[in-house]
Amino acid sequence: MAVCVAVIAKENYPLYIKTIPTENELKFHYTVHTCLDVVEEKVSSVSKSVNDLRELYLGLLYPTEDYKVYGYVTNTKVKFVIVVETSNTTLRDNEIRSMFRKLHNAYTDMLCNPFYIPGETVKSRVFDKVVFQMMVPVPEVQS
């Protein structure tokens, strides 16, 4: 499962970052910040080749020794970043896409809250719950 989930505003400042374990939080802030250049590069190359039919899922942004960083950009240029451990070989590309879809839906639901001001940090318990479910492995039911 994910070890870090981040939501980055279109102006490239963090709206939300959640990490597990929390003692590596600064390391993940740095990892998320360094992947923004790759995101911008991929977004600009896609927008040059295809006019309006842009794929939101950016795929693997870059791998490190310990982690793989995946990216997703909404139509409003809000960026989602998910960091998973390299040792986790059970996650497939379609599962990462599904995680981004859930994250995007939760973010959209959170934006519909009339008390949320766009551009502020995300402080939604429902959004936290969705992110936490992505980060903690769900125990399998044995029959």
Task: Please outline the major beta sheet.
Answer: 5 strands, antiparallel
Radius of gyration using CA atoms only:
15 Å
What is the structural class?
Answer: alpha+beta
Assembly annotation: single chain
Beta-strand content estimate: 15-25%
Regions with pLDDT < 50 over 5+ consecutive residues?
A: none
Shape: globular
The helix content is 25-40%
Question: How many helical elements?
Answer: 3
Q: What would the average pLDDT be, to the nearest integer?
A: 86
How would you sum up this structure, described in words?
This protein has 143 residues and is of the alpha+beta class. Helices cover 38% and strands 24% of the residues. The protein has three helices and five strands; from the N terminus they run ββαβββαα. It has helices at residues 25-49, 93-111, 125-135; strands at residues 2-8, 14-19, 57-63, 67-73, 79-85. It has a five-stranded antiparallel beta sheet with strand order 2-1-5-4-3, sandwiched between helices. Strand 3 (57-63) and strand 4 form a beta hairpin. It is globular and about 40 Å long.
Write the layout of secondary structure elements.
Layout: E1 2-8, E2 14-19, H1 25-49, E3 57-63, E4 67-73, E5 79-85, H2 93-111, H3 125-135
Antiparallel strand pairs: 1-2, 1-5, 3-4, 4-5
What would the keywords be for this entry?
single chain, 143 residues, alpha+beta, 5-stranded antiparallel sheet, 3 helices
Summarize the structure.
The chain has 143 residues and is an alpha+beta fold.
